[in-house]
Structures are given as C-alpha cells and as structure tokens.
Amino acid sequence: PIQSVLIVGHIGKMIKIAGGIMQTHSKYADCRMEIIGVHAAVAGADSKTVKSIMECITAEQALLLLKSHNQQIFQNTIQSIKEKLIYHIRHRMGEYVNCCVVVFSEKLGVLIQSENVEWFLEQYKNFELEDIRTYLPSEFYSETAENGYVTLYPHIHHTDGFFIARFIRKE
C-alpha cells in the first residue's frame, strides 16, 4: 500500500486544489483568480487589490501583483492557501497516507512546502528513478522516460500538464 506521496506542482494548478477542485483542467473549472482573491482578502488585501487580482490572466501574475503591493499580505495569503491546499489533499488522500506538498512558481520559486517534505526526502533518500516506458502509452514517450520521468504538455499531449516520475528503492 502507498504510505507516502510527494506532490509537486505549479501554483496555476495547485491553486485549484486549494479551492477543492480536483479536476484541474481549464475546461472543467478555472477560478484561480477568485481563489487567490479570496485568500488575499482574508489576509487583509483591500478591495482595489482584489479587483486587480481578478483582472490577472495567470496565477503567477496575480501573486507578483500581490507581492508588489504588500509583502506581509502576500505572505499571509500564501499561508492561507497552504492551509487549504493541505486540507483538501489530506481529505482526499485519507489519514493513512503521509502527504507532502511543494508548490512553486516560475518567477517566485518555491511558494509552499509542507512541514513534512524534509522528512519525506530524508526517509526516501535510498530511492532512484526507474525507466517508466513500460507504464506509459507510447505517445507519451520522451527522451527522459528511460531516465524515470516524463513531462506532459497540454498543447502537445492533449492532457493536463503533468510531471510523472517513478522511483524504486536502491538495493
């Protein structure tokens, strides 16, 4: 049985999960700005700032805007998003799976890291990537699949964007 999971994702996808949306493809739901805006408001952002967030196109843009307005409100917003994100993931995963979360932004770097990520990396340091081609449909093969990971892109693979890796325990 699965005991631990490390979920690493871009803020553009993970913000939807923080809102309780598990189907993150844009054709099903796209309320990224609404979720960021509500968390910003709870963290103390004024209505003008929330309105500016609502006018953003990307989650990256919204967070950069928020950070440029007020560093403390930005930090409080990230903390609020982190709490909801971890709540929704743990609710779905169940209490028997240790779920570790890292959320990143291309421009801001690591935004969220659950407290147990360091534990996870220490606990599972005796693992290495395994060739995953036997687990994937051939249309998802890439030059990295034999190295143990693959990145899927919506505009190429007609899926949500994913990074998939398979690890095996070292002997």
Account of the protein in words:
This protein is an alpha+beta fold and 171 residues long. Helix 1 (11-18) crosses helix 5 (71-93) and helix 2 packs across helix 5. A hairpin with a 3-residue loop joins strand 2 (98-105) and strand 3 (109-113). The chain is 42% helix and 20% strand. The model has no long low-confidence stretch (mean pLDDT 87). The protein has seven helices and seven strands, in the order βαααααββαββαββ. The protein has a three-stranded mixed β-sheet, covered by helices on one side. Strands 4-7 form a two-stranded antiparallel ribbon. It has a two-stranded antiparallel ribbon with strand order 5-6.
In short:
With 171 residues, this protein is α+β, with helices and mostly antiparallel strands.
